[in-house]
Amino acid sequence: MNKPEILQVGELPDWDQGPLDTAFTVHRYFEAKDKPRFLQEVGGNVRGIATRGDLGANRAMIEACPRLEVISVYGVGYDGVDLELCKERGIRVTNTPDVLTNDVADLGIAMMLCHSRGMIGAETWVRDGSWKAQGMYPLQRRVWGKRVGVLGLGRIGYEVALRLAGFGMSISYCDVASKPYAADWAFVSDPVALAKQSDFLFVTLLASAETRHIVNREVIEAMGPEGMIINVSRAANIDEEALLDALESGALGAAALDVFEGEPELNPRFLELGNVLLQPHQASGTVETRQDMGKLMRDNLTAHFSGAPLLTPVL
Ligand code: 8YV
How far is the CA of 132 from the centre of ligand 1 (A)? Predict the structure, then answer.
């Protein structure tokens, strides 16, 4: 039997590549030098796309594949997939929710602690001899007991809040509506009001056209010179220019970011700043979670091509 032909948008670990190559005829988009030409050559036979959350599948890619039936995303975020076009064409879309929730929450908390306590600078203080030469490391900011706002109390936001409760923090959250499972936490309907009453603001929203720049200049400035914003969602949820302006002027105290506009390129202004912690989009990046994500991404493709129900459908 002929194997279904799929387009693989980005590189994946060997433990996924092997099984993908066994089950499908895989066209490696990420290896093609001339990508539009590659799409022209193979697109006509492609029935499935395996992509990553950070890469998605845009209109041009989907249009180059007239027989496309399914897009399987390795990641919970599918904002990079042209869902409107998929709806029009009846293309199914899947993602990998749940399996990465706890790792993303863990990294968000680690970023908050690391940055508040100045751990990166403290490491350098030890290694470069400053400890011996200059004595005690400059004092940092406390975390426990402070006020925290969680913007987006979905799966990841909920796990973030649970962890924060363990630090004795007073927790508020903002979402489209109050959540029945969050009775211990205060619902705030407006992001600016949430920022005003928070020392730390976690951005844990699924990104969409509606949430673009939801953290705007007003929200950022409402955090104030002692406030910190932590983003483990998508860069597009924050107005990055406004964020940079506020970090540079001191209108915002600090930020800890795992995601950037145009990543892995990033605005060089970030590199000049000492009050920002920069992470390379690695919140779900543990061996265990990436193995689970890969399996779920592959299982969704297999389910589709064997006529079984999709495990984690988005569309
Ligand atoms: C991954 C992600 O880092 O879940 C998402 O939406 O962006 C991440 O978990 C990414 O898909 C791996 O490249």
Answer: 41
Is there a domain that residue 78 lies in?
yes
Looking at per-residue confidence, does 2 or 148 come out higher? 148
pTM, two decimals, is: 0.97
pLDDT at site 197: 98
pLDDT tens per residue, range 156-201 = 999 999 999 999 999 999 999 999 999 999 999 999 999 999 999 9
Domain count, the chain: 2
Q: Are residues 44 and 67 in the same domain?
A: yes
- Alpha carbons 49 and 61: distance in angstroms, whole number: 9
**Torsion angle in degrees (nearest 10) through CA of 260, 266, 268, 270:** 30
Q: How far is the CA of 140 from the centre of ligand 1 (A)?
A: 31
pLDDT digits 0-9 by tens, 75-106: 999 999 999 999 999 999 999 999 999 999 99
115 is catalytic: no
58 and 18 in one domain?
yes
Q: Are 73 and 126 found together in one domain? A: no
- Let me know: does 283 contact 108? Beta carbons within 8 Å: yes
Active site residue 234: yes
Confidence band, pLDDT 50/70/90 cuts, at residue 291: very high
| Ligand 1: lining residues by beta carbon, under 6 Å | 52-54, 74-77, 100, 281, 284
> How large is the average pLDDT for residues 256-284?
98
Residue 188 is part of which domain span? 101-278
Is 257 found in the same domain as 208? Answer: yes
Residue 213 amino acid letter:
H
Tokens of 254: 């600090």
DSSP state of 81: B
312 assigned to some structural domain: no
- Helix ranges, 140-239 (H): 155-165, 191-196, 217-223
pLDDT at 123: 98
Q: What is the CATH number of the domain that holds 294?
A: 3.40.50.720
Q: What CA–CA distance (Å, rounded) separates 259 from 111?
A: 12
CA–centroid distance, residue 275 to ligand 1 (Å): 25
Mutation probe of ligand 1 site: the residue of 9, 54, 257, 292 with most atoms within 8 A of C-beta: 54
Instruction: Give the mutation target among 100, 203, 232 for probing the ligand 1 site: most ligand atoms within 8 A of CB.
Output: 100
